[in-house]
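Supplementary Text 2. Reproducibility record for the structural model of the 139-residue chain.

All settings were left at their defaults, and a single model was retained for analysis rather than an ensemble. We include the record here because the model underlies the residue-level annotations in Supplementary Table 4.
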Amino acid sequence: MIGIFATYNCGIFSAIVALTNPKAFKNMFKPKSTWMPPTRGLSQEAKKASANILNYTHKTTVDNLEKNPNGDFLRVHDIKYNLTRAEITALRELRNNKNIIIKPADKGGAIVLMDKEKYMQVGLRQLTNPKYYREIPHT
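Retained model, structure tokens:
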């Protein structure tokens, strides 16, 4: 019985569960539930909306699953970007620029672009302020 679990190695945890509690190990591999909540008490409009959502979800996911040796994955079609190609290129260039620092602002949700040298100077100025920081001697 131990040889079977070694063949289907699911990790150390699974092997320990299998040896100590075979029923618990078997339950780790149950198929996904197909349970749906009951529709009694729902209006016809709510039932119709629920069916539409279920159909749409099935259409956009299950129908687009592709088989892959590493598992199923969802094929995505017609991706609509909210940025133009020029904006994407500009962002990529900014991100790759080693002379600037890009950080979120402290307030307001803005993005701050700062010269890297200036950023380092401000950081050192703050760290060397004895009102807030003091050096801990090496021991």
